[in-house]
Every structure is written in C-alpha cells, then in structure tokens.
Input
Amino acid sequence: MASSNLTKTGRAHYLDSLRGFAAVSVMLSHLVVAGYNQLGWIWTATIYSPVRILIAGHQAVILFFVLSGFALTRMIDGMNPYSYLRYFAARVVRLYPPYVASLILAVLVYFGLERLGFQWTDRWMYTVHPQIDKNIILEHALLVGPLNVRDINPVIWSIAMEMRISIAFPIILFLVRRFGLYAVVAMMMCSLAIGPAVPWANAHYSSYVSQTLLTMHYSTFFFIGCWLSFNVDRLRSRIPQKHLVAVWCFALALYAYPFFGDWEIIARVCGDVAVGVGAALLVILCSTVDDNAFLRIGRWLGKYSYSLYLNHILVLFAAIIVFYRTAGSVVVWCVTIPAALLLAMLMHKLFEWPAVLLSRKIVRGFSPRRAVTNRLDA
Output
C-alpha cells in the first residue's frame, strides 16, 4: 500500500476516495430518469461506452458493500478488547441517526411541496408520494425487517441490507479468518444459487423468505471486503507494473458491464457476483496509486458520501416535481447536483458527524486510553 495513501493511524485514503466517487455515481445514475434515458443514440452511446461507469449506480452499491466489509474488519480488529455489544451499538449509532434524519426531512419536504400546491402522483417520473401510516413508521423504524423502500426513500434498501449484515458480520469475519478464500468462493456459489430461488420464494412464501435470500446474496460482498482487508497488500504486490493498464481496463469492464437495470433477478444476481470481483480489483488497484488531486477530490466527496447517498434522491425528486414540467431536464440536472452536495454537507454536519464521533467513543469504550485504530470509519 502506497505510504502516501495512509495516515499515521493507517487509514487508507484511497478507500475514502472510492466511497466518494461511488456516491456520485449513484446520484448520476438516478439523474438519468429526468429525461437522459430518453435521448436515443446519446443514451445508447452512454450505456455501451466507457462513460457507463459514471452512471453505474447499482455497481457502486456493490462497491459500498465491499468497502463496508473491509472497514468493519479493520474496526473489529482495532477493538481492544473486542465486545459484540460495543460493536453493535457503534454500528447502530453510525447508521441510524443520519438514516432517520433523512426520512424525517423527506416527509417534511414532500408535505411542504404538497401544501405549496405542487401535484404529482406516486411513481410519476419515478418519484414517491408518501402516505404515512403507523405500519410505514414501524417498518422504517425497525429497518432490518421487510419494508417497502419506495414509501419514502428508495435508496434505503441498501441501508437495510447494511444493517442486517452488520448484525451478523462477526460471523463473517470468523469464517473468513477460519477458511480464507474458500469462504468467499463458497458465498459466491451461494449467490449464484440464490438467483433462481428468489422468484420461487416470492411465489410461494412471504417477503421475509425472499428478503433473507437477498440479504445472504449481498453478504457475499462483505465476505469479499473482509478477505481483502487481510490480503490487499499481498495481492497488490502480485500485479506486475507492466500489466497495470491491462488490469485496470479489465477491472473497470468487469465492474461496469455485468449489470443492466432491465435484467431479471437471476441475471442480476450473476451480474452482481462479477461486479463484486471487479470492485475488489478496483480496491486492490487503487492501493497502488499515490495520492493526487483526483483522489483528494474523491476523498472530499467520501467525507459526505453517506449523507449524499441518503439525501440526493430527495433533492432529485423535489427538483423533478418543481421544475420538470415547466423548465425541463437540464434545469433538473443543474439544480440537483449542487443542491444535493450542499444538503449532504449540511446533513453531515448536523447528524452524520456527531454519529461518527459517538460511534468512535463506543468502539473505544468511552476511554481515551483504550487502544483502538482509526484506520477506517465503517
């Protein structure tokens, strides 16, 4: 790992950069619903050219899961002594307050738009029109159970997955430590088997069964990230310098192209596994890159990545509701990007950063003397 990519505490800056660029990729992928996907040959050229990586939103979520597996491994390894209760409390504190704040803000904004006289129907231009009742409140408060993510904020499906898998992550860490790459390959095989099982489960059982199967599928990428945490230096050293460009091209292609939004679940699951391998290669390759201006931009974005991920869809939908009919797509795009970044910075300051600080205190047991690494914030 390039020394310039590490802080004194061993924090890997290139992972922060990957998070930042991944969050922007998710935002750009959602922007296409505001008319870009109707631009004929321009849209076709985008999805079949290298530009596709800029709008690879689902792939970016897979990358987030890989990075979470990496980060949680470092987090647990840095706890001295380890306590599951402290670990679990830290994860809840880290994820939950920004999540709840984003939901409350979304409900208030949609309510305000309605009171101002704006009219829209649910799913118009992919937007949501929340109709809040006690069941929706309970489902979203619980987070880890089945919930209709389109009720308020569609992107929270991945936060639900993150929380579910975080609960069981110490088991993932144990299996990877015990069986190494065999555990990762076994989970990949499970993912490939889950693809055909999900439609069958939806047809014959409750949503709990299909949600459990999908959670198992997405846990595969936490396995990959966990294994990478132990092996990234060794793997990086095995890439010959003369082959770096070829490996970069292969990794980007494997990351960007094995997924398309219209695919059925079986093809999507298979594509996810390929994307996971591509994401792992990107993590390894980024560890070979010395710190530079491009990575510093990503690192700045990475600071706000969680808040940007949670809140960008609200900004986009609000912009569509307010501007799309009268001003068109370009205005929606021009409003959404800066407004989403500004809102992410505000939500980070008000909710995410306090959650990060409290999470760190919980990890070290509220004792400044207790040894704990700050290599990564999970």
